[in-house]
Amino acid sequence: MSLKMTKLFLLFLVLVSFTCLSFAFPSDKLDRFSWEEEVLQLFQVWQKEHGREYSNPEEKGKRFHIFQRNLRYINEMNAKRKSGTQHRLGLNKFADMSPEEFAETHLKEIEMLSNMESRKIQDDDDCGNHPVSVDWREKGAVTEVRDQGECQSHWAFSVTGAIEGINKIVTGDLVTLSAQELVDCDPASHGCAGGFYFNAFGYVIDKGGIDTEANYPYTAKNGSCRVNANKVVSIDNLLVVDGTEEGLLCRVSKQPVSVSIDATGLQFYSGGVYGGDNCSKNSRSATLVCLIVGYGSVGGEDYWIVKNSWGKEWGENGYLLIKRNVSEEWPYGVCAINAAAGYPIKEVSSSSPLLSAAI
Ligand SMILES: *[C@@H]1O[C@H](CO)[C@@H](O)[C@H](O)[C@H]1NC(C)=O
Ligand SMILES: *[C@@H]1O[C@H](CO)[C@@H](O)[C@H](O)[C@H]1NC(C)=O
Ligand SMILES: *[C@@H]1O[C@H](CO)[C@@H](O)[C@H](O)[C@H]1NC(C)=O
């Protein structure tokens, strides 16, 4: 979006929040018409910014109605924020979708697998001295944030992201890998209908490697598996963290890690540390597979840095900060992020500058 558009957009946002504040109390003077007028203008700016066009006036009316409802919700939630670091909601590209529609297209429940248990290990490496913060992006081990589009392929992007990370750490090369190959070829996942990281790592191990994004690009559709896909980057094994936050922290200090969360509260997430409003605490209610690429703290709050596949326009340039180091209220961490964390193993080559730096 252009700077001018952004400014205009922000101006409207400020205008709208003032309107909300001044008419917060029920009053027969409440000027409903002018609020609707303003929101309609905001909606048109938003439509332009997102290149969103509707096929007929009925559809536009329906979308405007949803947009209005979402705007009210976003304003309400933002007004309840207790600190500057707490997460914010915003009118992002999902602002014309109802929460029900969003759940349908983005939050299909993930089938967890019982065979994961056999891969669970307690990290036996000494992790007493892990750094206070880690960001694998700064170490050049994370590729660009992608946009899954109208395809629930988050699981495939989580897997390519984890393999990209360990490959960079072990070989020194950052290569963007093919999520499409996983969507098309992994027989145990469901392509654009969803999947889990565990099977897809297994596919890459069994096949002896995965192709690059350049050779086998993303289409956001189910496709037929290319039998001649190259084996450019291989992995040797797959392990699952023991379910504890210490175990996860220890592993993330060594490489990016695939995790699953319930992402129900995240449709309008636009930045800040997310404390788990509206997501499930249950370890079996995951709806999104994503990738932890680091951790840190701000204003006394500890967080994970999570790479998502909903495009760069969502969240903090495509990333989510989610709270860690929380009370027993969250037995599996916020949104059950600790419940099923997995990572690929790649045999270490002796000439890896990054690896020695990380240890
Ligand atoms: C994609 O393929 C999966 C099976 O692998 C199927 O369940 C799903 O319905 C397909 N989705 C579309 C949009 O065709
Ligand atoms: C999300 O949680 C907040 C409180 O944390 C609540 O006020 C709000 O109504 C919830 N939203 C939904 C859609 O359930
Ligand atoms: C968790 O929080 C406590 C303070 O509440 C802090 O002393 C401790 O270092 C934190 N642990 C981690 C792993 O960040």
Care to describe what's here?
One of its GO terms (biological process) is proteolysis. Residues 43-102 form the Cathepsin propeptide inhibitor domain. This protein has 359 residues and is α+β, with helices and mostly antiparallel strands. It folds into two domains: 3-80, no CATH class; 105-358, Cysteine proteinases (Cathepsin B, Chain A), CATH 3.90.70.10. Helices cover 33% and strands 13% of the residues. The longest helix is centred in the N-terminal third of the chain and has 23 residues, at 57-79. The chain is globular. It starts with a helix and ends with a helix. Bound molecules: 2-acetamido-2-deoxy-beta-D-glucopyranose (NAG) (3 copies). One 2-acetamido-2-deoxy-beta-D-glucopyranose is lined by residues 277-278.
What's the topology here?
Elements: H1 3-22, H2 32-49, H3 57-79, E1 88-89, H4 99-106, E2 120-121, E3 134-135, H5 154-171, H6 179-185, H7 197-207, E4 237-241, H8 245-252, E5 257-261, E6 269-271, E7 273-274, E8 288-298, E9 301-307, E10 319-323, E11 342-345, H9 353-358
Helix pairs in contact: 1-2, 5-6
The structure holds 2-acetamido-2-deoxy-beta-D-glucopyranose (3 copies).
Summarize the structure.
With 359 residues, the protein is of the alpha+beta class. 33% of the residues lie in helices and 13% in strands. The chain folds into 2 domains: 3-80, no CATH class; 105-358, Cysteine proteinases (Cathepsin B, Chain A, Alpha-Beta Complex), CATH 3.90.70.10.
